[in-house]
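Sample entry (256 residues):
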Amino acid sequence: MGGATKRQGFKSSTAQLLVTAGTKEAVGAAEPCQFHPQLPSIPSRVAIAAILPRLPEPCLEREHKIFRGIETISNAKWCHEDKTSEIQSIFFNRRYAYLFDQMPSGWRRYFHGTKRACHVGGSDGYLELCNGPACSLCRILTGGFKMTSAGSRRYAPMFGRGIYSTSVSSKADKYAMNHHIRSRLHGIILCLVFIGTFEKLHQADQWKTAPAEGCDSVMGATVNDGGSRRYTEAVVYRESSIIPIGLIMYTRTGRK
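Predicted structure, serialized as tokens:
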């Protein structure tokens, strides 16, 4: 696609946004959200169910302020130097446009990679979502994240069966797999995640089912912080704590 921006992976120099306080860390205060009456700082299932994405959503024009904003975030957080990405199109639920001016307290924009078993996102028009049981991407875009899909019977994730996301787009790309289809495109989901007060874990806990008391999420400590994770990874254990708000379609090189 003409005009696409190509970005060589690099480690971002963006200052860390999380404030350390022992093993518990806070991102903003737990207070009612003043930016959207349906988006409380401490999410409830009822409130989140009322604001799940309205689909289909049209593709953003490349000159659109939100397209440029998402592209900038994704490129800045492409940290793997052994692969590159080139954004082709971005689909976004425009009712969340206000989030690019000021984020509600405790929430963050993170990325999530998952299995794509259809050609959703392959055109610049509207998203054509499938209802195939193997297409995790379309299931999330139409119905939100589900704890019943967290983990698998054969594989226990590092911090238990929760819903994982990351601030690093190239880490999310690791899980953005095309399943039984031939396509040069790949897709990662842009999510709104309630990090709130988080528990930092320095080692694996595959049987974990919730953050520590008083915490809203789990963060895996990075190598620079004494942990084993190379890149930031967040886990929530409530469906109401993570909302899919956009889809980034891109091509990549350097990874088979």
